[in-house]
Amino acid sequence: MHTVEANGAGIPALGLGTWTLKGASCVDLVSRAVEVGYRHIDTAAMYDNEADVGEGIRTAGVPRDDLFVTTKVWWSDLAAGDLRRSAEASLRKLGIDAVDLLLIHWPSPSVPLAETIAALNGVREAGMARNIGVSNFPTTLLSQAIALSAAPLVANQVEHHPYLDQRKVHAACREAGMAMVSYCPLHRGGALFSEAAILQAAARHNSSTSG
Questions:
Q1: Model confidence over 64-88: pLDDT tens digits?
Q2: 190 neighbors 166 (Cβ within 8 angstroms)
Q3: Is 47 considered catalytic here?
Q4: CATH number of 3-204, picked from 3.20.20.100, 3.40.50.410, 3.30.460.80, 3.30.830.10
Q5: Which residues contact 116 (CB under 8 A, 6 or more apart)?
Q6: Please, is 154 exposed, middle or buried when counting C-beta atoms within 10 Å of its C-beta (0-12, 13-18, 19+)?
Q7: Higher pLDDT among residues 111 and 195, named by residue
Q8: How crowded is residue 120: how many other Cβ atoms within 10 Å of its Cβ?
Q9: Given this model, what pLDDT does residue 211 score?
């Protein structure tokens, strides 16, 4: 299994995102993904599926330490007390003692970043998160977050695909020793799979672009 080393964290390079998944289908898909070899499972408080993700992980029966579990705190819960309560709620729903990576899902327009980063560090120090990071942070805000954090930030999760160039963010992450974790790497389907380059690659490999 290939991992990305980022400020002390070994992040499995291929992860299962669970946005839009809920209920029995979420449990089943997470369980099957783990069974076939996925080791990085990504969820978030906003997805409202952490309990289902946790059940899927338990159903798969893989030892907890073999998995890398990421969750995120929503932008409305970034004040100090709110962030800690969100982290505690996520752990209860997932049924685990600590996540491998806790991210700020989106920056807040109203809560000072210094307060949020301090609270994020506090959750790590309390043992609820083995690693911490951010999501959807542009380069300027990322630089500020890095400077404010006592512990190293290990990742910035951003949308990244052939239609969205994130070279500046990627360069900033590399310079800081962080991983840039891509979500929607295949766009959202649709037009991307009609591009000539995709169709030609599919033809060369006798494959379909429709899955």
A1: 999 999 999 999 999 999 999 999 9
A2: no
A3: yes
A4: 3.20.20.100
A5: 78, 79, 80, 83, 104, 108
A6: buried
A7: 111
A8: 29
A9: 57
